[in-house]
Amino acid sequence: MLIGSIEAGGTKFVCAVGNENYQVQDQVSIPTTTPNETIKAVIAYFKQFELDAMGIASFGPIEIRKNNPLYGYITTTPKPNWHNTDLLGQIKAAFDVPTTWTTDVNGSAYGEYVMSTLSNEKIQSLVYYTVGTGVGAGAVMDDHFLGGIGHPEMGHTFVKRHPSDLDFKGICPYHADCLEGLVAGPTFEARLGQKGETVPLTDPVWDILAYYLAQAVIQATLIVRPAKIVFGGSVINNMLLDKVRQSVTEQLNGYVELPPLDQYITRPAIANNGSATLGNFALGLKELQS
Amino acid sequence: MLIGSIEAGGTKFVCAVGNENYQVQDQVSIPTTTPNETIKAVIAYFKQFELDAMGIASFGPIEIRKNNPLYGYITTTPKPNWHNTDLLGQIKAAFDVPTTWTTDVNGSAYGEYVMSTLSNEKIQSLVYYTVGTGVGAGAVMDDHFLGGIGHPEMGHTFVKRHPSDLDFKGICPYHADCLEGLVAGPTFEARLGQKGETVPLTDPVWDILAYYLAQAVIQATLIVRPAKIVFGGSVINNMLLDKVRQSVTEQLNGYVELPPLDQYITRPAIANNGSATLGNFALGLKELQS
Fold this sequence. Notes:
The structure is a homodimer.
Chain A: E1 3-8, E2 12-18, E3 24-31, H1 35-46, E4 53-58, H2 87-94, E5 99-103, H3 104-118, E6 125-131, E7 135-141, E8 144-145, H4 179-183, H5 187-192, H6 205-224, E9 229-232, H7 238-252, H8 261-264, E10 265-266, H9 275-289
Parallel strand pairs in A: 1-4, 4-5, 6-9, 9-10
Antiparallel strand pairs in A: 1-2, 2-3, 6-7, 7-8
Helix pairs in contact in A: 3-9, 6-7
């Protein structure tokens, strides 16, 4: 069995081919330039294989309502050239196999969810946050994605401001100081005038980020009640997650019973940013078998 | 067909009997005193009828995981005498009929969800907030309740503080200025020294409440993406909901496409606080038919 995976990102499309055990057989990274150029290269890559199914996890916003004429499109993205791109339609036109369509963060959430089953942890629900250039999240509940009239956009909720951070205006073009506007990667430059990679782990800014990310954990916890919350993305490191756990303990103040926080709030179990690829394999396989 | 409904609240148990068309045939209100006394009266009431099924929607926190030894219990409530009360078990011991068990706000959410189908609105997802002595919420997604390792506790997330309200400490005993600590009924006394019912609609406090409730709407919107958000509870009035809609428009700033806000953010469609009763009828009937 061969399943194709497309993790469509703003800078690159990670394309992979895997088997029914979710093992990567081949993988390539294609730069995100124009839809024509990138999608053509993606199709050419997969034409080398006899695929049985495909899974696509895309940057967004995307249309996920099957009864909508724009189902399968990347819709209102600010990314130049990619506004209203029928990504799913072009892939399906090239490959006559069962193909799934969800957000990049849902793909990662599903990969981590499946991994919990493979590793005998067997949780029933999981939220996956990515904290990088932007902030997004996906969620799996009992093998289904959370979402009603659209997919979650958890990065843009508001949070209580940290007392040492009241003068920072935030960088979200829509909301200024929503979660993304306060913790996304570019906030390092905005607050400190330096790239995040160069900020020492002793800088107090990490406490501020942890305070806000802890509130994201509390929102997801009290609204969704997942069994686990996973954090991926370039801003995340072990020290930061330790601070997040400590801040959750302080701010939530024992209000609901949670698993031990080192198991509840974690980095991805799947190495090398492979969560969405594994998720796509599993979703494609599930689609094929249904 | 006769279905029993118990809406177990902190001050009263509303017990009703309805038919397969969700019409109330009989209803009584029993004061919440001690578990022994109240549950005995509830059982005596329902013994008058030949019930086919029952639905219970209870104040919480409650245990909803069927594989947990405390399933069916009201667990860590601060309400005197009611800590660790096996409400479902006592009802099931008295009535050998299919019986459902969920939170009061989930019961209300389900009632409003079913009503949308009866009224031809036919939404697939709905969040129901109650704003009264406390703040709580329940959610239905594709005929299932939202929740993983427990039921939602959406009233205790944090929000960005209103610039004119920075000196108010909040009244939540766990979190001080979480949503409940900033908007629940008793905040009127804490801020103004008067009961909510006596606060004129021209008081600026309503703008403050609307600002926070709009952030609750934004959290539920961006995390769950429901088709509708319904507000019940003694604090809610039409003018407040108008202010909430306006504040959502300003704070969310067009980030995601929503239904017209007068349809998206509403008061209950079911009159006379009957949402949970109708929800229980529908849940009991569904359990019977499954």
